[in-house]
Amino acid sequence: MDVEGQKNIESWRNFAIKIAGDYSAGEFNKGDRVKAVFGNWQIEFEILTLINAAAKPISYSCFTKVSAEFKPLDNFRFSIHRKGFFSNIAKVFGAQDVVIGYPEFDDAFIIKANDINKAQMIFAPDNIRDLINAQKKIYLSIIDKTDPFGKKVPDGKAELLFVSSEIIKDENILESLYYLFGLMLDQLAKTGSAMRL
Questions:
Q1: CA–CA separation, 94 vs 97, rounded Å?
Q2: Binned average pLDDT, 10 residues per bin, the chain of 197 residues
Q3: Residue whose C-alpha is closest to residue 47's, from 103, 9, 100
Q4: Which residues are CB-contacts of 112 (< 8 A; sequence separation ≥ 6)?
Q5: Which residues share a beta bridge with 163?
Q6: What is the pLDDT of residue 89?
Q7: Are 142 and 114 in contact (CB under 8 A)?
Q8: Closest listed residue to residue 31, CA positions, set 43, 48, 11, 9
Q9: Where are the domains of the chain?
Q10: What's the CA gap between 106 and 100, in Å, rounded?
Q11: Phi-psi domain of 154 (left: phi exceeds 0; alpha: psi -120 through 50; beta: other)
């Protein structure tokens, strides 16, 4: 194992210890993973590697995925990511921007939702906005079909999903994502959109 791989293992093991989670080392077809509990919610952290065998030479892309399944009580869906070049193009082609009512946050992020009032309630707590703002790169959403890696969400369930296009090695960032997921799931439950499985 190379030094970089060893650093990943150490940071993910330390993170698991910090949050009283269960760490599993990566195997041939699966990356490292941490399963954790926050209140009533099960949260899973995974390192995923996608192989592009068609490329010459073969190329690899690594991702960090955080997910938590829940029972949806309505059809509320949202996605949030930082503003950038592609989001400006999306606006031109008709993507809608939900305004939460906190100017600095609204200026930094694009939020799409099918219920504006509920989105405003979900993102109203300061601690949720602070934890989102702490992420340099963020793509967070609720899905109910298939995730970007081809994993199907079981019928009757939905999933809160975070994806990063790199392996997150910083234990503090991993810990902030753990708290973000727990608080977001609690807020979804308070607003009548989620129930634990």
A1: 9
A2: 59 96 83 95 94 76 95 96 66 64 94 93 97 93 93 96 93 97 98 95
A3: 9
A4: 78, 79, 80, 95, 96, 97, 98
A5: 65
A6: 45
A7: no
A8: 48
A9: 3-195
A10: 6
A11: beta
